[in-house]
Amino acid sequence: HKLPALSLDATDDGTLLATVGADKSLRIWGLDFGDCHRTLYGHSDSVTDVKFVRGTHLLFTCGKDGDVRIWDADRFEQV
Q1: What angle do CA 29, 31, 32 make, to 5 degrees?
Q2: What is the rounded distance in angstroms from the CA atom of residue 15 to the CA atom of residue 69?
Q3: Rounded CA gap, 43 and 35, in Å?
Q4: pLDDT tens figures, 11-57
Q5: Closest CA to 69 of 2, 20, 10, 22
Q6: Which helix (H) or strand (E) segment is 22 a member of?
Q7: Phi, psi values for residue 74, rounded to 5°
Q8: d(CA 16, CA 22)
Q9: Is this structure's pTM higher than 0.85?
Q10: DSSP states of 36-79
């Protein structure tokens, strides 16, 4: 992140980590090698929280823009 990371969450299967930050981004990381798979943008202000749906690679983000968004971490896109 170019600005502070504000929240993180990992999948139940231990394969992915998601981080969100003040730079308006969501980053999807692989926990096997620790590499950033993709940086995604959709919020117009800081992204303040992220949470994976238990047993899936779907996740929710919310931000200071008042939006809640759902993402597919396997396809790297909003649902």
Answers
A1: 125
A2: 21
A3: 23
A4: 999 999 999 999 999 999 999 999 999 999 999 999 999 999 999 99
A5: 20
A6: none
A7: -85, -35
A8: 21
A9: yes
A10: EEEEEE--SS-EEEEEEPTTSSEEEEEETTS-EEEEETTTTEE-
Residue the block writes with tokens 């993180």: 8
For tokens 């950033």, the residue is: 36
Structure tokens at 16: 């992915």
What's 11's DSSP letter?
-
The answer to whether residues 14 and 31 touch, using CB atoms and an 8 Å cutoff, is yes
Please give the structure tokens belonging to residue 32: 């096997």
Q: Which two tokens stand for residue 45?
A: 């202000």
Catalogue the long-range contacts made by 3-8 (C-beta closer than 8 Å, 24 or more residues apart): 3/46, 6/46, 6/47, 6/48, 6/49, 7/47, 7/48, 7/49, 7/50, 8/50
